[in-house]
């Protein structure tokens, strides 16, 4: 079972029976989070996309891109971020998905990661940069317990493979102005899957 290395600031959202899901603020400093955000915002080749929903094509409400860790074009910032995440989570991450939420209108609908696109029993780690956004984590089975978690810059959210069976997670749109946010999603992928999911 992969967990965040022990730290008294770690908040448990779900235990090992349905997760784990844990949240740790302050994994990197605000200054470093700001520097990494600026570097990735300006240097990454961000992509817009569309997908079929309700029998029509709709724009995905965020920008995204993806790297494998053996990509020769992997930005130095992502190598540094991988080292930080690897120091906190025991997993052989080989995939980094980036999502850019430009403002309060960008979002990701409630979802769980597709298990066939993950190596079994390996975790997902989300490192947040930029503005704080709310992640809604909802239990799939009744009584559909819900947690609203404020993902601060420099924080790390860990979701166990098992959590994808029991919980959905999403970033809702907001009615108040909010600044841009970048999330880095570290996964252990089979050698083929591409990155499209958010966090």
UniProtKB/TrEMBL annotation:
<dbReference type="InterPro" id="IPR027450">
    <property type="entry name" value="AlkB-like"/>
</dbReference>
<dbReference type="InterPro" id="IPR005123">
    <property type="entry name" value="Oxoglu/Fe-dep_dioxygenase_dom"/>
</dbReference>
<protein>
    <submittedName>
        <fullName>Methyladenine dioxygenase</fullName>
    </submittedName>
</protein>
<dbReference type="InterPro" id="IPR032854">
    <property type="entry name" value="ALKBH3"/>
</dbReference>
<dbReference type="InterPro" id="IPR037151">
    <property type="entry name" value="AlkB-like_sf"/>
</dbReference>
<keyword id="KW-0223">Dioxygenase</keyword>
<keyword id="KW-0560">Oxidoreductase</keyword>
<dbReference type="GO" id="GO:0051213">
    <property type="term" value="F:dioxygenase activity"/>
</dbReference>
<dbReference type="GO" id="GO:0006307">
    <property type="term" value="P:DNA alkylation repair"/>
</dbReference>
<dbReference type="Pfam" id="PF13532">
    <property type="entry name" value="2OG-FeII_Oxy_2"/>
</dbReference>
<feature type="domain" description="Fe2OG dioxygenase">
    <location>
        <begin position="92"/>
        <end position="190"/>
    </location>
</feature>
């Amino acid at each position: 079972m992969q967990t965040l290395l022990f730290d008294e600031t770690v908040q448990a959202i779900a235990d090992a029976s349905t997760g784990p899901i844990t949240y740790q603020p302050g994994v990197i400093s605000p200054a470093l989070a700001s520097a990494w955000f600026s570097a990735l915002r300006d240097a990454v080749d961000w992509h817009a996309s569309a997908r079929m929903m309700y029998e029509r094509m709709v724009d995905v409400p965020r920008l995204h891109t993806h790297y494998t860790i053996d990509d020769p074009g992997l930005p130095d910032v992502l190598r540094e971020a991988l080292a930080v995440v690897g120091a906190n989570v025991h997993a052989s991450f080989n995939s980094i998905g980036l999502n850019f939420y430009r403002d309060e209108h960008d979002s990701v609908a409630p979802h769980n990661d597709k298990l066939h696109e993950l190596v079994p029993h390996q975790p997902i780690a989300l490192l947040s940069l930029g503005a704080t956004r709310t992640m809604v984590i909802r239990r799939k089975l009744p009584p559909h317990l819900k947690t609203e978690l404020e993902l601060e810059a420099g924080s790390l959210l860990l979701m166990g493979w098992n959590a994808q069976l029991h919980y959905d997670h999403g970033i809702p749109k907001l009615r108040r102005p909010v600044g841009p946010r970048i999330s880095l999603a570290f996964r252990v992928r089979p050698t083929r899957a591409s990155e499209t999911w958010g966090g």
